[in-house]
Design a protein that fits this description.
Layout lengths: L3 H21 L15 H27 L3 H17 L14 H25 L3 E4 L5 H11 L12 E6 L2 H10 L7 E8 L13 E7 L5 E8 H20 L4 H9 L5 E9 L5 H5 L2 H11 L4 E9 L4 E8 L2 H14 L1 H9 L4 H10 L1 H5 L2 E5 L5 E5 L16 E4 L6 E3 L1 H14 L5 H11 L3 E5 L6 H15 L5 E5 L2 H15 L3 H5 L2 E5 L9 E6 L2 E6 L11 E4 L9 H9 L6 E6 L13 H4 L11 E4 L2 E2 L4 H8 L12 E2 L21 H19 L10 E5 L2 H14 L3 E4 L1 H6 L15 E7 L10 E4 L13
Helix pairs in contact: 1-2, 1-7, 2-7, 3-6, 7-8, 10-12, 11-15, 15-18, 16-17, 17-18, 23-24
Pfam family, one: AAA_30
InterPro entries: Helicase_ATP-bd, P-loop_NTPase
Protein name: Helicase ATP-binding domain-containing protein
Amino acid sequence: MGAGASFIDVEELTEALEQDFARVVPRTPRGSLDVASCDRGKVRKVVDGANERIKERYVAGWQSYTARKGAAVDELRDACAALVEDFHEAEPRCALPANTPSALVDMASRHGAALHAALEGLVTKAGGEYVHGPTKKVERIKDKAENDYEGDVARVVDVERATGLFDSLEALNTAASAFRGTIDGLTVRRCKDAFFAHKHDSGYRDMKLFVEVADTGFIGELQLNLRQIQNIKGHAHKVYDVERVLEKGTDEALRRAIDGLDLESEQVLCLAADGGQSILDACGHVVVLEDALDEALPAGCEVANVYNAGGAVHAHVRLGIADVCALARLRDAVLFEGSFETAINAALPHDASQLAEKLATSDKMKELGFSASMSQSGRCLLKNERFLAGDSDSSLGAPPDAKIRVESVDVHVDRGAFMECYARIMMRFAKLTMHQREKLTEVRGAKVAVLLAPAGGGKTFVAVQRVVQVLNEDPDATVLFVARNEALALFVCKWLVVASRKSAEHVVERVHVLVAPFSSGPRRVHVEAAGGRRRLMFGNSRVEATTYALIVVDEAHHLVGDSSLRSELAELGAAESSLLFLGDASQATAAMQSPDEIARSLVELPQEQDVVVATLSEVVRSTKRIVAGAAAFQLEAGRKAETSTHSASAGPPLVARIFTTSKGDDAGETYAREVVEALTAIRRQLVDLEDLDDRVAVVGPDEAFIEKLREPLGRALGGFELVDAATASAVLPRGDTEARAADAKQLLVVDSVDNMDGLERLVIICVGLDQVIDRGAGV
């Protein structure tokens, strides 16, 4: 389809725009944008030039999907026309109890989660990626109501919004046809066709569906779009944000638009109050909770959505995360330090007078026209002179005149839920650092590439982004992933599923795996449900010969010169595919003259074939202590890697448990007892985290040692299901709204160092590793 150039073009557009802004907007001595001193006329010229380039890219993006696809184009045109005819309500409105932005935010928090759950199932079933957008802020609701709907807030029906992204017209048509049928829990109120009937002057195209959550009166928006067009829109929206405030916006508004934090809305926090009280009642008003979150969250984390959950007892908070460093800071604050809970409780009011003070000084409430004071009954009196309404004890979306009581309770974070969200976000996170982006560009432009990085350097992360690009750019592409052990191959397949944001079935049907013994050949991956969990499984038989768009060989430094793998890759015609080898020269067990020997030792390449070697030297995902510890284990056969840590997190210290055994003691029983005590200490260190499901790995030197440990450890830890690394790697993460089966035990990985190669866990308990490991093992 030739989509690859489009992805590169969008990145180049964004970089060019940032450079243009840097040229016309000076910076202060502290490095921030000095918007007050800039010439807005020059900023206007930058915006106009960017819009012209965007229009060209929209046209090219649409043509890349429609060329030689006449039947699919006609099908989409007919589907759009039919949906517009079926769902043509001229002015859909939310059924608000009071026509205020506050009431609309209240309604969104109550029904938004149900809207997204139903829409996500429809999009992913059709083979699309579901992208959850942030809740529209009250300031934007107010602006849109006044500017577009003569102050009628109820007509703002995109407070909750999402996008269904598709990589082909065929998949988009499947989704469009699904909305013509009966949809459980939803009613389509209106369809707007901007693919054909109302294409934008800018060249942008999409289809918008305005959908009501059944029997609630709440309406949200779903956009259906093609990936290339949406990628360009992501760039165009930054230009739009600048253009929107350029003429009349304040200096601060313009600075924020140019700097702009990109929100990738993710379910991150589940908050609860003492005594089973509603978290939102405890806070007094949703704005108070949002302001408290703003104060407590580390830099780089921004509130995107707040939803009622668990019968309105809990609040589910979705955040926009600026980068992986911000996520690491939040992890430390929630798990290792407990500082986030301390900060949010300090920021929340503990009596009515504190609530009145916070509401009275809140910029968000002032913007909406609210004032706050104490009533004679000792409650906080919230008033809005712009509207008329009766008294009410409603708290979350308090109407224009409401008396609110607030209880003095402590707010807690569900740490088990946080860890599930954290693990999923780390696999889903696609924002690259500048260093990673440069290296991804290098390997993407190469027929054959070797990507080198030390332990924790992110080579698998960058490779996953490359595979996702290949699968998104060509709907007919198939990728082969090669690794020594099953656990790593399954983990990468799971990572691809999460990173793609599509249904697991649609992702793994286009990914084959090749693991030792390599002579067994490539196998398919499929999804099975067992024991209340969904798992990835390898097929039993060799797949038929196919041409792979990309072959990725992970931990390739362990496979240099492997004759069995070389023979199998030759049979697969690997030299005709794009090749990406991932390795760590510092762990190589055989001396190499140059890194390209990794590629040439496994695939017979023409002598004139260039092998691009890219090196990641910036460790992003690991803490500083892990990086320092890993450096001590670099082998002399490779070069010592020079690395820097992108994360500011030092991480918790290594804890050593030294003990002695008496003659005649059973080593397995002794080690099992020490592991149990270590787990107890871990729970204390992680601020009483009870749910350790698949968060901890017990790692031993070899299979024989693990077999001796497994039986006594299983007796001592009856609440856990002891599994090997491959079994744990196969388990797919649960969705935001899925609960683990009531009778399901927590998974605890117990395996050897070899089988854990290339994997990670929140906590590793190293057992019996106080012995010399043969350097020839390549560990």
